[in-house]
Amino acid sequence: MNLSLEITGLTKSYADSGFMLDNVSLAIPSGTIMGFVGENGAGKTTTIKSILNTVQIDSGTIRLLGKEMTDRDTALREDIGVVLDSANFSAILTPGKLAKVMRGIYRQWDQELYVRLTDKFALPMNRKIKEFSRGMTMKLAIAAAMSHHPKLLILDEATSGLDPITREEILEVFLEFVEDEHHAILMSSHITSDLEKIADYITFIHQGKIILTAMKDELIYDYGVARCTSDQFRRIAEGDRLAYRVKEHQTDVLVKDRRGFGQQYSGIMVDQVSIDEILLLLVKGEN
Ligand SMILES: Nc1ncnc2c1ncn2[C@@H]1O[C@H](COP(=O)(O)OP(=O)(O)OP(=O)(O)O)[C@@H](O)[C@H]1O
Q1: Third-level CATH fold of 3-218
Q2: Is the ipTM beyond the 0.90 threshold?
Q3: Record's SMART domains (predicted)?
Q4: Nearest alpha carbon, ligand 1 atom 1
Q5: Residue 43 and residue 19 in contact, taking contact as beta carbons nearer than 8 Å
Q6: Ligand 1: residues within 6 Å at CB?
Q7: Residues near 233 by Cβ (< 8 Å), separated by ≥ 6?
């Protein structure tokens, strides 16, 4: 299996805040989308900055498209499209002028594709970016990132603040992008419904540590949450629960194999579980 991104044993600490990315490992097979989720301050952006080599890591290896990136690696930078939530283009530019700047930077700049994407996103070519709404700026950032034909797209909260219709359009573009088996996407997002729609894998990060990576289909179709009374909860073997959370009238238990669990523990109701609820149980629950 070809990996578009492979992070092994990444450690990065910030002396000022005491935060640390602790032995983070992550692999994205080519042709797939990895969703990256975690609460505020969990370490998603720090992981992304480490991948982009914009912060200095303490230890670990990061291979992008099979290569470790050095500061001088401009060829590899062409192959990576980046959209950060703080897209800050020079406000006096227009999308038309931005294209001229991008053409100077990226050898692979594809003006036709840029025009097609900006058209699709209904962005006016000659209006100043400073007059754009947040959604328009994000759409422009996505169009610009995709128009130099990257192989790996790294998106940090790229759809946050966008309305559902715009998000749907953008997700469609991302899905088309990974139809090419040499392409891949790492997408951090708090909008887990977007990831439920398009991600192949989901990685959960909490306090700088990866707490779970799984195929999205497994999470949606196999994982479950058992709603237990306290008597039912006591019957569950420790090895059969990933995490649990005691509430006022029931205890929620995250289980890996919903159907198997249902057969083994008859009488306990087991629901399908969303990515949000998995994150909540892993982060707020006990195990
Ligand atoms: N330059 C810095 N110096 C010191 N601490 C930092 C720095 N940048 C981030 N941090 C701290 O590192 C931790 C992780 O931040 P990070 O931005 O990676 O989280 P995140 O998962 O992207 O969060 P969010 O979902 O809120 O964007 C936070 O506690 C943050 O305060």
Answers
A1: Rossmann fold (3.40.50)
A2: yes
A3: AAA
A4: 14
A5: yes
A6: 14, 16-17, 19, 38, 40-46
A7: 244, 251, 253
Question: By the 8 A CB rule, do 37 and 203 touch?
Answer: yes
State the pairing for strand pair 251-255/224-228.
Answer: antiparallel
| Alpha-carbon span 109 to 150, nearest angstrom | 10
Could you read off the pLDDT of 16-44 as tens digits, one per residue? 999 999 999 999 999 999 999 999 999 99
Q: Which of 178, 159, 180, 156 is nearest to 168 (CA)?
A: 159
Tell me, what's the pLDDT at 199? Answer: 98
Cα distance between residue 96 and residue 36, in whole Å: 32
Ligand 1 midpoint to CA 43 (Å): 6
Of the candidates 32, 4, 3, 2, which has an alpha carbon nearest to the alpha carbon of residue 151?
A: 4
**Residue 87's pLDDT band (boundaries 50, 70, 90)?**
low
Closest C-alpha to ligand 1, atom 25:
40
DSSP per-residue string spanning 137-205: HHHHHHHHHHTT--SEEEEESTTTT--HHHHHHHHHHHHHHTTSTT-EEEEE-S-HHHHHHH-SEEEEE
Residue 282, helix vs strand vs coil: helix
d(CA 23, CA 25): 6
Q: Kindly list the domain boundaries of the chain, sorted by start residue.
A: 3-218, 222-284
**Ligand 1 atom having least distance to the Cα of 157:** 27
Mean pLDDT of 140-160: 94
